Amino acid sequence: MKNYLKIIMIDEYSVTPKYRQLANCIIAGIKAGDVVKGDMLPSINDLSIALDLSRGSIERAYNDMKKAGIVATIPGKGCFVNHTEFNDPTRVLLLFNKLSTHKKIIYDAFVETLGSNASIDFYVYNNDPYLFKKILHERALETYHKLVILPYFIDDYEESYRLINSLPKNKLIIMDKLPMSINGEFAAVYEDFANDIYSALLRLNDHLKKYRQLKLIFPDGAYYSQGIIRGFENFCLDLAFDFEVLTTLEHHEISPATVYINVAEDDLIKLIRKIKHTPYVIGKDVGLISYNETDIKEVILDGITTISTDFVALGTRTAELVMSDEKGHYAVPFNVVVRNSL
């Protein structure tokens, strides 16, 4: 039996599931000619011990390759390479700035749409431009067909955008945020932040009319797009609402006849706590609108009104661009869900 430990390299820093990394390595070995038709794969037990991986991860990798017709199982003997002539899956380097509930929705839609057509190396750089640079410099970028990036950075963003601009544009797909600093002909699926909040508030205007002012909670130094503030302010000016942008809730006193719009999830919890310490009733004296739809917002406080990007569409459309050579820029839909908090 071949020494598969020379073929299989599991990257502990990658967020790509271990079972997917394992399958990718074996497929790469087949494409390189290091593994040939008829070769027997290690048993699940042997590979689990050698790689310090769970049996479940190895079993899932083998099952995925069985479904693709790459390997077959012979009862009582083991798992063998059954097919070596297959379409080379599109290799994708996927860089997320962070993990969150809605980022998981994007990722799941992206992976489900691609299915077995792509091999994905997934990394999270935590909004850190230095970690972002390190990941790109340590990857063999020439081996990837597509580079998919969510470009959010805490600081040193100009250097990060210069690095992105140095990447081959025929491989580049920008997801979620579309910075003006990125130039050239590349593909993008993005949120139109200024227009999204403006149009969402316009759809909610009949509910907003019973309030006197609107307050947007936008954390100071946050990586969120400034387009949110522009769209919010433009709406308030056009529709003659008193308004304020709050960078923190720490010393803020809750005002009646006010609608609060929170961007960050942490601020939603703080806001609810503050309101509960007042005599005001949510949905009557004080309105509440939260960014990003999640299941919990349907339940708490008898339902919180949300404005939210269609994250499934964001992941799905990006995956479609991976499998094509389109270079267009596509804004994703923005949804409004009205509940009792308004």
TrEMBL record:
Residues of the HTH gntR-type domain: 16-84
Name of a matching Pfam family: GntR
Keywords of the record: DNA-binding, Transcription, Transcription regulation
InterPro entries assigned: Peripla_BP_I, Tscrpt_reg_HTH_GntR, WH-like_DNA-bd_sf, WH_DNA-bd_sf
Coiled coil residues, start to end: none
PANTHER family referenced in this protein's UniProt entry, alphabetically: GNTR-FAMILY TRANSCRIPTIONAL REGULATOR, HTH-TYPE TRANSCRIPTIONAL REPRESSOR YTRA
Identification of the protein by name: GntR family transcriptional regulator
Species per Swiss-Prot/TrEMBL record: Mucilaginibacter defluvii
